[in-house]
Amino acid sequence: MAASVAHVGGHLQYGVNFYKAKGYRKAVWVPGVTFHGCLQRELSWSCGVSKFSQIHRCNFSQSPVSENWKSCGTVTTSVYLRDGSTRYFDFTVIGSGVAGLRYALEVAKHGTVAVITKAEPHESNTNYAQGGVSAVLCPSDSVESHMQDTIVAGAYLCDEETVKVVCTEGPDRIRELIAMGASFDHGEDGNLHLAREGGHSHHRIVHAADMTGREIERALLQAVVNDPNIVMFKHHFAIDLLTSQDGSDTVCHGVDALNTETQEVVRFISKVTLLASGGVGHIYPSTTNPPVATGDGMAMAHRAQAVISNMEFVQFHPTALADEGLPIKPKKTRENAFLITEAVRGDGGILYNLSMERFMPLYDERTELAPRDVVARSIDDQLKKRNEKYVLLDISHKPREKILSHFPNIATECLQHGLDITQQPIPVVPAAHYMCGGVRAGLQGETNVRGLYVAGEVACTGLHGANRLASNSLLEALVFARRAVQPSIDHMKSSSLDLSASNLWTRPVVPKSLGSDVTHKILRTTKEVRKELQSVMWKYVGIVRSTTRLETAEEKIGELEAKWETYLFEHGWQQTMVALEACEMRNLFCCAKLVVSSALARHESRGLHYTIDFPNLEESKRLPTVIFPTSHMMSTWSSRQLHQQPIC
């Protein structure tokens, strides 16, 4: 067993630990190691998260339905309680992707539900998911085979019990979507058309052409529109979770949010909160994630004393569209990279360098069907050796009709820029795509914070291990959103809404008192700092890493954060002030530090984490990385809550 502690900015910022697994399922606390006097105890991944609350802690001071949204201004007050700028619900859901919506539809049968979404309801990672959902739906396939593929892709760091649960329950979750009106592609025999993607041994990917996520989102959003118990709060940015200390337990009571259209801070008090806020792709300059993916949920949970795990495992999708390789360049820089789905390689797409030399056989016997981490590193190696900006993915040798029917969205996008994918290869380059780590969750989506559940990319359930298998993300979101329902209902029924609780926490304020000139200066500087942070992360914490580069990143991020915060406070910014850009920056800093600290603690190369200083797999290091709650007394603005935690 090994333990390491990461230091940020000269003080103890995170307790980063590996703990030894039995196989890859059991996990135990490192004996004899304490963090700020907090007692560690034994637990397994699957059942132990619910025990976290028993641990002694220190006192820590484009959618067609988008126009039909119910909002707080159009729903009668009988649906939920409202007191000024405070809303009271049984359940609060943060995020409107597949995990948040699927959960909301179930818990709405038992109480009132607020769905808080940062932009338009359809603007989520789900909506951008092209490939599909993996599930065992073919007689020649098996749960055991899906499990094995998942575990191999995850470099044997997956939690076996979690993998079994997800692979077993997946088919039923697909059938539920179909019953709700989701339309997937069928073959000539009338059965679901099942595609195959990298890392899968069988055809098991259910899809709707190359727009699967959009179709699932459409079906779920339509169901939410028709549910009178669900209220959608669009353009509401979640700022911080509202938590208190009840003895050794941290308890979640809801969330503060900023209405980015009216600049009003709204407080949501609820019995149960589900975090389903997606990923953190925008800590990097190029990502397939939508602009809303700034790690808000992971940062909020960390500040609220939730346990975080496996943040070093950032998945770079091997094939995002390389705009500079297109015959007609886009007129403006994209906010997020255009994804070229894994299914293109699954359908026979071949990768070439710019000399039209096929290179994947040089790196892996599975060639283009190797897992994503292998393909991304192979492309990265080619680009560095040849000093080129992109490689080519060619599917033009396949029948034109098949290409256009399977990949209509990709074909249309490329054709707009002068490239016909039925005749020409597609220029591609890796881009940040998916965070395999996140808020540590048990088998029912529970966290160590009472009343707080997680599902989707924001969660770390143990399914993905060190690398996510293609099309397992939507599957995991569906399964865990459903599994979190019953414990949430049980918690809701055993809780009561405290109508006086709204005044327990200091309210965030918008910076009107600073004046427009100062505010614009701060936001302009924040935009520049954001680009600097992204540049540091890509240069030093990218696909291939080293200890020296990671330490450099840690130092540069610390300096950049200190410089930014000093600028803010010297210009009159207060601890409780909030603005969308500043709060996103705060979350990006928080998540970037979590990634770097976790990466520095892993002294091996496994899955998505590859370091030239420890290039081999080490059996003794086959352990999850865990970041425990620590005191925030000396921490930066990004790493602590805006309010003081009340003691219950």
TrEMBL record:
Enzyme Commission number(s):
1.4.3.16
Q: Name one GO molecular function term.
A: L-aspartate oxidase activity
Which catalysed reactions does the entry list for this protein?
Answer: L-aspartate + O2 = iminosuccinate + H2O2
What is one process in the GO biological process aspect for this record? NAD+ biosynthetic process
Can you supply one Gene Ontology CC term for this chain's record?
Answer: chloroplast
Q: Which residues form the active site?
A: R372 (proton acceptor)
Q: Which cofactor does it need?
A: FAD
Its predominant location is plastid
Give the pathway listed in the UniProt entry for this protein.
Cofactor biosynthesis; NAD(+) biosynthesis; iminoaspartate from L-aspartate (oxidase route): step 1/1
One Pfam family name is: FAD_binding_2
Domain named Fumarate reductase/succinate dehydrogenase flavoprotein-like C-terminal is located at 530-619
Q: Which SUPFAM superfamilies match?
A: FAD/NAD(P)-binding domain, Succinate dehydrogenase/fumarate reductase flavoprotein C-terminal domain, Succinate dehydrogenase/fumarate reductase flavoprotein, catalytic domain
The similarity comment for this entry is:
Belongs to the FAD-dependent oxidoreductase 2 family. NadB subfamily.
Alphabetized PANTHER family for the sequence: L-ASPARTATE OXIDASE, L-ASPARTATE OXIDASE, CHLOROPLASTIC
Protein name, as recorded: L-aspartate oxidase
* Organism this protein belongs to: Durio zibethinus (Durian)
